[in-house]
Amino acid sequence: MSYKNKQTFLQGTLILILAGLITRFLGFINRIVVARIMGEEGVGLYMMAIPTLILIITLTQLGLPVAISKLVAEAASIGNRSKIKKILVVSLSVTAISSIVFTIGMISLAPVLANTLLTDERTYYPLIAISPIVPIIALSSVLRGYFQGLQNMRPAAYSQVIEQIVRISLVAVMTKAFLPYGVEFAAAGAMISVVFGELASLLYMITMFKIKKTFKVRKSFFSHMKEGKSTLHDLLKIALPTTGSRLIGSISYFFEPIVVSQSLALAGVTTAIATKQYGELTGYALPLLLLPSFVTTSLSISLVPAISEAAARGQSLIIEYRLQQAMRLAIVTGGLAIVILYVFASPIMELMYHSSKSAIFVQLMAPFFLFSYIQGPLQAALQALDLARAAMINSLIGASVKIAAIFAFASRPEFGIIGVALGIVLGILLVTLLHFTTIVKTISFTFYVKDHAKSLLVMIITGIAGHFIFKYILVEASLSLRTLTAIISTSIVYIILLGSFQLILKEEVKRLPIIGRHLALIMPNSKK
Fold first, then answer.
1. Which domain, by its residues, includes 424?
2. pLDDT tens digits, 130-139
3. Are 34 and 46 spatial neighbours (Cβ–Cβ below 8 Å)?
């Protein structure tokens, strides 16, 4: 069975990267609008509700998106259309039931979460406002897993862009409409815009599924569901360990604002100030630090079906090649982001939020976030190689250390909110190193010290160049022009150095559509 919409690993990754770039850009506009309307306190309330949502969604999905992608890729490789339908039917049935249960649970427990655990009763309103999103995301994630398993990344990519366009179109209207009633209602309004964005994304996914499908889902739906015991077993065999890994991360994220608020209280920080500081860290600094994650997420999504297909065919060399490829691209793209964020943290924050107070978080955490960028591809490889249980254990260790470190540091007055940043960084470092160790023990994997040393050298040289450009060029110009010119110049220096040090392979760039063909013409010859 052939699928005309199937893309190669690099093409699929590029589609997701371009969509991620657009959505991240729109997402930043969205965050700037929200921050300027609601302020740090409103963003803090918004961000305190998000971990609960992530936990509920993780429980609802049961890790099925990754399992669907892997099993559909394997079934498609041998042309088993019937199995693909069973996978889809069983997945839809499970997520439909779980989404109803957990949505009701989220609404019921919202008062307890807001008043007791989060220590700020105002978070009740954002929690209630966001609850309808759970079944929407549950259904769309099943469809995304289906398309990704067929290695057709376009529907998932376009749906992300649609979601952000709808969200950003509504967020200013919703937050301004509710702001007169209080900052907590403005945060709820921002949540409602998220719900409508996800709904638009789901409607697009359903439309694309109806157009692209090669079978009728409703035909013999219940008979396929009854006969799907083995399919359910196959799904859960992959999904449950994957859920375990994500659940640990989600539970850690859920407890994070709780531990932060309690720790800062012990350090003598009032509730309102703690909410404000948490908003500065998680609403202003972390989104910037996570900006390159759209690249690593795209690589991870493409990596699961690519490695699963190679593993099903016994192509061990392809598995290592794909992982090396993904890690190198993650380091290359993440490296530029680290340099720009570290060097230009203050002017970027000033231009975006009219305040550079959060710049200290960015500069403190940026160098360590390179480990976060390569963590995604490593975890995707573990899932594709049926090592989700090992990934889960690694995540558990990292999450436990992170929460303990946050409490230990943030509860001390001399650290305060900086202790939260240190705890987050420590967790990232530990999980990434554990994932890498597991990979090395499992497959034949070569660590190219020379290439990684060159990457580090390129980052250092580029950082020095960027600092010099910003300090001595266009010093009389406006901050926006000066910063933009410096960032563009720094990026050009970085790209030139990548080509000079042969860290971008010309043969890979030439395989990419249109953009790659033009870039290949200007890149210096690189190693094979």
1. 9-290+306-447
2. 888 888 988 8
3. yes
Q: What's CA 381's distance to the chain center, in Å?
A: 16
Are 379 and 484 within one domain?
Answer: no
Provide φ and ψ at 269, rounded to 5°: -90, 130
Residue 298 lies in a domain: no
Query: Mind listing the pLDDT tens digit for each residue in 21-44?
Result: 777 777 777 777 777 777 777 877
Q: Give the dihedral sign, CA 50/131/181/186.
A: positive
Single-letter amino acid, residue 71: L
Q: What is the 3-state secondary structure (H, E, C) of 413-440?
A: CCCCHHHHHHHHHHHHHHHHHHHHHHHH
Question: Does a structural domain hold residue 1?
Answer: no
Q: 352: Cβ–Cβ under 8 A, 6 or more apart, which residues?
A: 28, 32, 35, 284
> Which of the four pLDDT bands, split at 50, 70 and 90, describes residue 456?
very high
383 with 467, same domain?
no
Per residue in 30-79, pLDDT (tens digit) is 777 777 777 777 877 777 788 777 888 877 777 777 788 878 877 877 77
> Mean pLDDT, the chain, as a whole number?
80
Give pLDDT, residue 245. Answer: 66
How far apart CA 508 and CA 299 sit, in angstroms, is 14
Q: What is the pTM of this model?
A: 0.66
CA distances from 253 to 25, 47, 454 (A): 24, 11, 34
CA gap 310, 322 in Å, rounded: 10
Which amino acid belongs to residue 273?
A: I
- As given in the structure block, the two tokens for residue 500 are 């000079």
Domain count, the chain: 2
Residue 382 CB: number of other CB atoms within 10 A? Answer: 24
Q: 324 and 270 share a domain?
A: yes
State which amino acid sits at residue 247: L
Residue 194's Cβ-count burial label (10 Å; 0-12, 13-18, 19+) is: buried
Q: pLDDT tens, 205-252?
A: 888 888 876 656 555 555 555 556 777 777 777 777 666 667 777 777
User: Is there a single domain that holds both residue 274 and residue 187?
Assistant: yes
C-alpha closest to that of 48 among 263, 253, 269, 264: 253
C-alpha–C-alpha distance, residues 468 and 487, integer Å: 12
Domain identity same for 420 and 471: no
| CA–CA distance, 76 with 99 (Å, rounded to integer) | 28
pLDDT tens figures, 463-496:
999 999 998 888 888 999 999 999 999 999 999 9
CA nearest to 432, candidates 393, 406, 394: 394
Residue 510 tokens, joined = 């030439």
Q: Confirm whether 301 is domain-assigned.
A: no
